[in-house]
Recover the amino acids of this structure.
């Protein structure tokens, strides 16, 4: 099964971003737009993982979540990968103060390490972590400078990243996500609520 580990911004934060993005969709119909129901902050993309590894993976991810405190973040300005003039992906950056961003990168590193120990190493492990939400994908490299600039001043309300989720991605004409398990941040595995 195809898996990833992610954080979800608050519904209010997603609604603010959706209000900023909705007017852009009609002007750029050639992009494959994602909607708020699929917006998330990936901590680690795991790719194909055998079902036999799920129990150990869950144990490792629970430990990783327990070692990291919640962080206050917000959805920020637009961007593109690999660049805005030859974009494949339109994004909104995830922002916060420096300690929060450092903590977020450390959490992503712990998730990747836990997945590796469980036998499900992320294929992009070792790459610099750049937290973002994917807003749209380009079928071919495209100059989306105008969209990136129109989202240049966006700064959403702060939200507390306090839970991470293991998510299964289902492919098909209408791809969808299934949350398999969730863990609160800052609470050791087995601690009472």
């Amino acid at each position: 099964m195809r898996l990833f580990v992610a954080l979800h911004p608050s519904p209010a934060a997603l609604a603010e971003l959706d209000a900023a993005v909705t007017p852009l969709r009609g002007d750029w119909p050639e992009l494959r737009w994602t909607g708020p129901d699929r917006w998330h902050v990936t901590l680690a993309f795991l790719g194909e993982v055998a079902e036999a590894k799920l129990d150990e993976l869950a144990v490792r991810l629970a430990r990783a979540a327990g070692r990291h405190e919640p962080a206050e973040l917000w959805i920020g300005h637009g961007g593109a990968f690999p660049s805005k003039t030859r974009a494949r992906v339109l994004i909104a950056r995830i922002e916060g103060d420096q300690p929060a961003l450092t903590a977020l990168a450390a959490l992503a590193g712990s998730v990747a390490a836990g997945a590796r120990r469980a036998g499900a190493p992320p294929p992009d492990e070792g790459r610099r972590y750049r937290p973002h939400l994917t807003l749209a994908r380009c079928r071919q490299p495209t100059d989306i400078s105008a969209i990136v600039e129109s989202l240049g001043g966006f700064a959403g309300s702060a939200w507390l990243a306090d839970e991470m989720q293991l998510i299964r991605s289902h492919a098909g004409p209408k791809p969808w996500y299934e949350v398999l398990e969730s863990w609160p941040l800052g609470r050791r595995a087995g601690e009472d609520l």
Observations:
- The CA atoms of residues 5 and 166 lie 5 Å apart.
